[in-house]
Design a protein that fits this description.
- The protein has 316 residues and is of the alpha/beta class.
- The protein has a domain of 173 residues: Peptidoglycan recognition protein-like (Lysozyme-like), CATH 3.40.80.10.
- The protein contains five helices and ten strands; from the N terminus they run βββαββββαβαββαα.
- A hairpin with a 2-residue loop joins strand 9 and strand 10.
- Helix 2 crosses helix 3.
- The longest helix has 87 residues.
- The radius of gyration is 47 Å and the shape is rod-shaped.
Length: 316
Amino acid sequence: MSDNPLSIQELGDSFVDYRQPIWGNSYTWSWERPITQVQYLVIHHTVTSSDATPDDIALFHKARGWGGIGYHFIVTKDGKVWYVGDIGTARANVANMNEKVIGISLIGDFTKELPTDEQITSTHLLCKFLVETASIPNVKSWESVVGHKELGSTACPGASWDKAISGDMWWRIKSNTVYSAPPPQQDDVYKVTFKGEVLATYEFNPEDKIKGLDSKLKTAGDEVSRLTSENASLTSELNQQETDNGDLLSQLRESNTDRDKAKTTVINLERQIDVALDKLKTQEITIEALKSQTPITGYTGWQLIGEGISKLFKRK
């Protein structure tokens, strides 16, 4: 069972550990995963009424036949952060990537409305805690905070999430700028200057971008190392299989040679049996011929011998 209690002081009473009370399995479903696999904090919207509760969302997921709620955190319109699925578990919020994400869903339908100011502030504090304080090795910058649409074919969390647009939802969560505040002005962006001249401007801190890229590069390097190790292991297994196949081929050749020798022996034995049968048949014919002769009567043994000798002399 994965049980990772969290304490986010900046959220105070707005943080609620709701893993135990909420319906479903919050501690092992969908499966347990090491926190080192996490690479993204993924922002969602529930596409429901803004008055929906974490329990309502849990029942929606129950109706899908799931074993627990699909998110790790839910942020209601009043800014409360509900911890509903242990961060040591892979839930069900990004297809084929659930082992790599922590899912944070804001109550509401952001195709029709915008997050409340309270939701923006609480989501900022939650993400800040997970990026800066929580022990998540591969989540170290705001570049790891992404919208669901960045990882899959979906519009979630709504049209306001567009990093190419100044003042989008990602920027507001990162900078803790609520929607009731005016959009960012030119002075709000990062500037690169030289001797008082602005050489370039950015809507984000370039250092954050570099850190994010470094993190992704390290992850890619680790993946390459893993694949290289797997390749070496498979190559070794293949070589061993080829050796085993060679041994089997040699055994097969020996077996074929033994089989040919046995076949030759059988053929020779069959020939000997045929010769013996021919002799036996000849002997049977001779015996039958002797049996068919008329026995000589009226002579004693010595008379027969004398008669025979007499005939021999007469022939001479």
